[in-house]
Amino acid sequence: MKAICGFWGLILLLGIGCAQQQDWTRLYFRDSRGVIPDVAACDSQSSIIAAGRLIPTTVEDYDAVLVKYSSSGQLLWDRQIGNSGRSELPCAIAIGPDNSIYLAMRRAQSDPQIFLQRWSSAGTLLWQQFLNPSAGYDDVKQMTFNTATNQLELLIDTEGIGMNVARLLVSNQGAVIATHLYEPPATLAQNEYGVGMIRLNANTTVIAVKMMDEPGNLFASPRTRLLWMRNDGVILQESLYPLEANGLERDSEGNLWMVGGYWNASMETMQLRACKVHAQTGAVLTQWDSHPVEQGDYVPDVMTPLSNRLLISAAVQESFQWRAWTGLYGADGSLFGTGSLSAALRRPIRAIANDFHAAYLLMGHFDSVNERWKPVLQTWRYEGGLMLESAQGGLGNSDEEPVTLVQAPDKSLYLLSQVTQSDSKSAFGIIRLLPPARLQGQVQLQDYAGNLQDKVVEFTLEQGAQTDLTSAPLDANGNYALTAKFTGAVSVKAYAPGWLAKRLNVVLGGQPATLNFSLINGDATRDNRIDDSDLLEVLFSFGMQNPPADLNGDGQVDDVDLLIVLFNFGLQGD
Question: Which tens digit of pLDDT belongs to each residue from 31-79?
Fold first, then answer.
């Protein structure tokens, strides 16, 4: 069958700030048969590879399709998979170090079968391997490629006495190296589902298993089990946590995050619960419940760590109507920012953090007037502010239901939607978004001996009459990175409490710009000048443990702090 791709015009509806620039858009379909996107991934060249289903024509079965576009928007190849008389459903996709493509498929029949395919980067089928058909494999929840062992790792839900979880290790040639089945439930009324897995090191994977006592019983005690499993299947340790987790992630400090729901008996609603776990010991580092002001049942759909903070977006049901709620939390449960979108129906789809202390949140927005879905992309930043919101797509009366969001190695974003036109034919809608403006560098906090990782620097970016306020944490070496609203010439002021503000100029564009600051110490009163009030603050705190007057961060106020004020006396920040 001949594949057809084309351009379509897009209308951007700007909500907050400047929209992230679109590089190109594509509409992919195959002759008279519609296609539905399911999974996608990027290779090292930032090409996008997507797999989905072809809508049946004369028989009730789905063939699959695998499509590859270059980063410049060229359709490199597409392949049809199937013709078996049964439905072939893509479940997961992973990219190897040689850019070969590993595709996990589910063949739907009375007893579902799971099989794997490996495709070359040029679109040649290298091998196909059916997994054990008698094992009751039902669905692939996650598949990753471990470059250290050159193996695939799969988390699979299985059917037996209730639902169960298995972990498989498969070579890059399709040979099943190991099958590790977690202990089955005791009765048919108990079910266990895979939530996710994270590879800790070359020998150990942490697997999250959601445990359900009775299907559909909201009042049962929510439980999620974490398993620390070795490559040989030995469970090193396991711990039980009081939430029905919907995701497992790892933050910049190496700790594990789970977010899920629990039944709040006093409010008679489902509420959110977050749990931060030490990745090695399983100890709970912090746990808190979120109680948004708005009423309704909260179902946490997506989350992503944003440095050492956590972005959560949940679907909320209230009075038979759904909306979305988003919150950015600190590790202690403090709420840095929130957005409650009740004006129109929205559904969280996926959240991804970048390397510049911002997170992208893809939502589906339902236009109740035209009864059509449209994709919306939000950008949240470390300080808790919603920096940008932009409507993507723009095909008028067509449904553009977002399916997934993928971040490429070049930091661009690919947004995939199922586009259904007026003739009821579905297509892959692919939008490539260029990365936003980014700024990085080092902040030297003069005369400071404390831990730089405890410091957060405030940045003010000015372009003409426009101002952008944000903040970013420092790492152990004083490095920072942030995502900015503006492109072009920008004036940037950096400020850390206790130091004088410094202003520098920079030009922001497609590539990250670098700007280094050296901030002068001695502002004990936090008024951006060093004068008599700072001297008095240090003198009155002498010999005490008063953090504002402890200018060098050694835990006490002494001669060193006094000398810092005296040496910098009379200076004022920008």
Answer: 667 899 999 999 999 999 999 988 876 666 788 999 999 999 999 999 9
The CB density around residue 463, as the number of other CB atoms within 10 Å, is: 16
CA atoms within 13 A on the CB side of 332: 1
Per the CB < 8 A criterion, the answer to whether 535 and 569 are in contact is yes
Distance CA 105, CA 97 (A): 21
Q: What is the pLDDT of residues 374-426, one digit of tens each?
A: 899 999 999 988 888 888 877 767 888 999 999 999 999 999 999 987 666 88
pLDDT grade for 184, boundaries at 50, 70 and 90: low
Instruction: Determine the straight-line distance between the first and last CA of the chain, rounded to whole angstroms.
Output: 65
Length of the chain in terms of residues written: 574
Burial of 296 from C-beta contacts in 10 A (0-12 / 13-18 / 19+): buried
Buried b (16+ CB within 10 A) or exposed e, 159-191: eeebbbbbbbbbebebeeeebbbbeebeeeebb
Residue that has been written with the tokens 């002759």 in this structure: 31
Task: Please name the residues in contact with 533: beta carbons below 8 A apart, sequence gap of 6 or more.
Answer: 524, 525, 527
C-alpha distance from residue 207 to each of 154, 162, 409, 427, 461 (Å) = 11, 19, 26, 35, 42
- pTM score over 0.85: yes
